[in-house]
Design a protein that fits this description.
The chain is of the alpha+beta class. 44% of the residues lie in helices and 20% in strands. It is built from eight helices and six strands; from the N terminus they run H-H-H-H-E-H-E-H-E-E-E-H-E-H. It has a six-stranded mixed β-sheet. A hairpin with a 4-residue loop joins strand 4 and strand 5. The mean pLDDT is 91.
Length: 198
């Protein structure tokens, strides 16, 4: 779908917020719409795919020299965590999976569990420091996110990892592709392939 001028401006602003501030798409879209007067004249807001196109354009202009190495470091960190938590069927999502991550990006890993308390117990048993956050899941319940901050040697910086704890039944719908046929997340084997090809 072709964007009109206002949609394009909102998508570009959202892309800047995603790349420079590490915001997720929904928050960046909302802030971008506020910056542009609330998008009152819009028929519809820019899709995630349209925003992602602008993210890629922003990276190509402002971060082409640093982003590939940063993305590789974040993907390697994600793979380490996915292997450590393999029993919870981890799938990487977000910018690190889609290839648009910079050092500001959060590593987002979905864990699919029979017992949603099990990942938290696993982290406690391994002596991992973490914080928790809760958000509405759209079904009248709340989803749990375990937040880990770790020092990344390759980036010489701190990286934030979000472990989103989901019900095992959610895995079926998680692998649906976007409008262009690309997946929104992938497992450790798929991530390893991406790392081998870069």
């Amino acid at each position: 779908m072709e964007l009109d001028r206002e949609q394009q401006e909102i998508a570009q602003t959202a892309a800047r917020l995603i790349v420079e501030d590490g915001l997720d798409y929904a928050t960046a879209r909302r802030k971008a719409m506020q910056e542009h007067g609330g998008g009152r004249r819009l028929r519809e807001t820019p899709s995630n795919e349209a925003i992602e196109d602008e993210v890629r354009a922003h990276i190509a202009i402002f971060h082409a020299d640093t982003q590939p190495a940063e993305l590789r470091a974040l993907r390697a960190a994600a793979l380490r965590w996915m292997l450590r938590l393999a029993e919870f069927r981890p799938h990487l999502g977000g910018a690190v999976w889609r290839g648009t991550a910079t050092r500001q990006s959060i590593v987002r890993i979905d864990l699919y569990c029979d017992d949603t308390k099990a990942p938290e117990i696993a982290l406690l048993n391994r002596g991992v420091d973490y914080e928790t956050a809760s958000a509405p899941d759209g079904r009248g319940d709340h989803s749990l996110t375990l937040i880990i901050a770790e020092r990344n040697v390759e980036l010489d910086d701190w990286v934030t990892i979000h472990l989103n704890v989901l019900d095992l039944d959610d895995l079926r719908g998680a692998l649906k592709p976007d409008a262009r046929g690309q997946t929104w997340r992938g497992d450790a084997a798929a991530l390893r392939k991406l790392l081998e090809n870069t």
